[in-house]
Design goal:
- The structure holds two protein chains of two kinds.
- Chain A is an all-alpha fold.
- By secondary structure, chain B is mainly alpha-helical.
- Chain B has ten helices and no strands.
- In chain B, helix 5 packs parallel to helix 10.
- In chain B, 27% of the residues are buried.
- The chains are: A mainly alpha, B mainly alpha.
- Chains A and B meet through helix 1, helix 4 and helix 5 of A and helix 2 and helix 3 of B.
């Protein structure tokens, strides 16, 4: 009974951590949303049971800047929760790529606007009113 | 009842967390979160499940992201996290109280006539009338202000009485209420300043 209650509480924590990229909860939520999966389908894809998803969500996201550390992190997590490490690596890499892509799209728009302003030389005199002359 | 992990376990988990072990956060959550929830309930600050859960989560997230903040020489990890969670819960409760007060005020403005709302805020001032009135009379130069202050301290609720002192009874109801409110807000500040100078106790 206590274990069941603990699992309910921890599941609520996992949901709350979905917005925090420090934790795997965030990657799992993004992956689920992008592929339109439910918990059962996600657990099946990772070759683990649904309860293991809670433990997985509470783990720290693997370090992405170093391939060796990434692999050792993914393998440590997979061993801890009892899932397929290769599938887990795929989930993390996919969500990371999607995030980068979204970031890139957002940044390019800003940079484009900045470049357009720079071309007209508006930045040279900040006190000068912005001209709309063509 | 769930119990906290022992000191040695915590030190070892802390070491793993510092070294970058990706599963240390989950281990800490599983071991500390359930008893932390129980501890916060027993402490009795609130019975609000969501607030308790949020405070416990925030305390653990903060520690997991900044493990260096915990100084093992100053106490156990469990006591550090408990204190942080309790502090977060107190802050959350204060926020809820502030929001509730604000909601009541907004509801007053929406539901009642504006003049009734303006007067209702001044109830607190009538309590200290006996203490403050003689002092205010000595420190306030304007006769109109003195009369307005007297009305406020006596707990007067009618906008018309204040409008009469201000000589604005010919204005529309809304304008009258607004002007009265402006004067009363100004005089409240005068009273607050005097209160802090005199260190007069508030009821």
């Amino acid at each position: 009974m206590r274990l069941e209650n603990d699992l309910i509480e921890l599941r609520a924590v996992a949901v709350r951590l979905e917005g925090d990229p420090t934790f795997m909860a965030s990657a799992l939520a993004d992956y689920r949303a992008e592929l339109g999966l439910n918990d059962q389908q996600l657990a099946k894809a990772l070759n683990c049971n649904v309860e293991a998803l809670v433990s997985l969500a509470l783990c720290r996201t693997p370090r992405l800047d170093d391939e060796k550390l990434f692999l050792s992190d993914v393998q440590a997590i997979a061993k801890y929760v009892g899932c397929d490490w290769q599938e887990l690596a795929k989930v993390v890499r996919t969500t990371q790529s999607l995030r980068t892509l979204k970031q890139f799209i957002g940044t390019s728009e800003d940079q484009l606007l900045k470049a357009a302003r720079d071309k007209h030389g508006d930045h040279k005199d900040p006190d000068k009113p912005k001209s709309r002359k063509r | 009842m769930a119990s906290f992990p022992d000191k040695d376990w915590c030190v070892e988990a802390h070491r793993r967390l510092i070294s970058g072990n990706p599963t240390a956060s989950a281990e800490l959550y599983k071991a500390i979160f359930p008893p932390l929830i129980v501890w916060l309930y027993v402490k009795g600050r609130t019975t609000d499940k969501e607030l308790i859960r949020d405070a416990a989560t925030d305390a653990l997230v903060d520690y997991i992201k900044n493990p260096d903040k915990w100084d093992p020489k100053r106490g156990t990890l469990v006591s550090y996290i408990c204190m942080a969670a309790d502090r977060d819960l107190l802050n959350a409760l204060e926020k809820v109280q502030r929001r509730n007060k604000h909601e009541v005020r907004v509801a007053d403005v929406e539901d009642e006539e504006i003049d009734r709302n303006v007067i209702a805020q001044d109830d607190e001032y009538s309590d200290t009338a006996a203490d403050l009135l003689p002092v205010l009379n000595r420190h306030v130069a304007s006769e109109t202000d003195r009369r307005l202050l007297t009305l406020m301290l006596e707990g007067e609720r009618s906008t018309d009485k204040f409008a009469e002192v201000l000589g604005i009874n010919s204005l529309s109801k809304l304008e009258k209420a607004r002007t009265v409110k402006q004067h009363k807000d100004r005089l409240k500040k005068v009273m607050e300043r005097l209160r802090s100078r005199l260190d007069a106790p508030r009821k």
